[in-house]
Amino acid sequence: MSTSKVDQKNRIVIDKKTRLKTHLKAGDIVIIEPIDDHSFKVNVLDFTPETLEDDPAWQMLQKPAKLKKYVPPEKLEEIMEETIWQE
Prior knowledge:
Blueprint: H1 16-22, E1 30-36, E2 39-44, H2 49-54, H3 56-62, H4 73-86
Antiparallel strand pairs: 1-2
């Protein structure tokens, strides 16, 4: 555990050991979440391409599913109506 002072511009300096352990570098974005009146939690956001490409939502947007066959809109409406009447 380390200590640090808050300066006149409300900035906090994070010691080198903590920065190395959390892979924090200049320009990284952090979320500061208050816990109670005298403490808060800091999370480092990770936007590296490796983690982004592993995200299922990103994969769906970048690599949409391929259709097995094309169904024209008229045929699709017919199929939907048949399904509704069967229920």
